[in-house]
Amino acid sequence: ITMVQREAPAFDQEAVETGSRLNQWPVQLRLTPVRAACFQGAHLLIAADCTAYTRGDFHQRFLSGRVTLIGCPKLDQVDYAAKLAAILSENDIRDICLVRMEVPCCGGMEFAIRRALEQSGKQIPLHITVLSTNGKIIQEGE
């Protein structure tokens, strides 16, 4: 793995003042209960851990109005499919937005969501956004 160091941007007071768009806690997929009031009628965001650090507008663009779950299939070394299938089966999820990186390990998150959808037996719209390692959106769609 090659580490890339970027020049730090100037301090942005406006960004600090806008605050968080996070709607619930916990956000870590492994810690989130299967049944929770926040899931009822929810627009679900599932984001790979690294994604929030690549885009300055992550809260405005992705978190706003969504219930957020985060995880990393490589670091957590867990199959998220069963937990996600239970969440999808037990709750009224309106749609799912996956934000992942272009790196191969993030493919595990997408795979787990697709398996969870199959296991749940529900037809829930899935929108996928793939980010490059420098935060550019390189793919959007289903």
Descriptive report:
- The chain is an alpha/beta fold and 142 residues long.
- It has five helices and five strands.
- The chain has a five-stranded mixed sheet with strand order 2-1-3-4-5.
- Helix 4 packs across helix 5.
- The longest helix is centred in the last third of the chain and has 14 residues.
- The N terminus is likely disordered.
Question: What's the gist of this structure?
Answer:
With 142 residues, the protein is of the alpha/beta class. It has helices spanning 13-18, 58-63, 73-76, 81-90, 107-120, and strands spanning 42-48, 67-71, 93-101, 126-131, 137-141.
Jot down its keywords.
alpha/beta, five-stranded mixed beta sheet, 5 strands
